[in-house]
Write a structure and sequence with these properties.
By secondary structure, the chain is an alpha/beta fold. Helices cover 37% and strands 23% of the residues. It has two domains: 172 residues, Rossmann fold, CATH 3.40.50; 106 residues, 2-Layer Sandwich (GMP Synthetase, Chain A, domain 3). It contains ten helices and nine strands. α7 runs antiparallel to α9. The protein is globular and about 55 Å long.
Amino acid sequence: MSMSEPKFGFVALLGPPNSGKSTLMNQYLGQKIAIVSPKPQTTRNRISGILTDEDSQVVFLDTPGIHRMRGKMNRFLLDTAWDALSNSDVIVILFDAAFFAAKPHMMEKELEPLVKPINGSGRKIFVAVNKIDKVKDKAMLLPVMEKAQAMWPEAEFFPVSARKGEGIDILLEKVKEALPEGPPMFPEDQVSTVPMRFMASEVIREKLFMSLQQELPYSTAVEIEFWNQDPDKNLVNIGAIIYTSKKNHKGMIIGKGGQNLKKIGIKARTEIEEMLEQKVMLELWVKVKEDWTEDVGFLRSIGLGE
């Protein structure tokens, strides 16, 4: 045990969609808490991951990507991200350096929404310049770094690859140094504040994302309909509804002869069993709910805007 006082605090992970926030948090925790997908807007809720070591407890607030899209669901997503900012002690901004090295003209448009709120937050700021492993000519990173430094002049910068784990240890050490002193709030074996039901719905949603590729990433939602424990059989019966906003999408999700839905179910069940460490019986249904992304009552019922 370190002789210094223990550290405890909340760290908001902020950035545009698809910048690697969930990947970084999962790397630190050594397991998957947030779903990871090559599609932007994968994270829809503020997901907390807890990292406990001998001298600190860090609670990561993984947030939806900051963007300019309109609509009620997107408003909910942005509110969730800004709420994490107001509840944090330290801010880590992530962005995709490979994308901006190739398209430097996009930097201002993509990152501008993050400049004022973060600079005015009064919190310690770290910038993780992510996906450097994808930039072959490292000289292309210099103009990206210069622009970012002009945006957040008070920040400390760290070139990292969240996917490969490069450069993330030194970033974590600096984050921990910046946290306030205080005892841990959570048991040392707890890795998330997210309920298991929510984790299961996220696993199903991830498998859905992966199976549908580019077709309909955002018009789907997953709601756990029932969750029944059967201790005698060491079994959990889970029923989940996949909502989609268009009738023709329903057929795409189910697939020919129900094959796609079956594949999604098998992959999700396997992962949920690993997570729960017990057998799972998983039933999936697909329902059409038109314009659900604009239905505030429905959005709240599936846990958005919390």
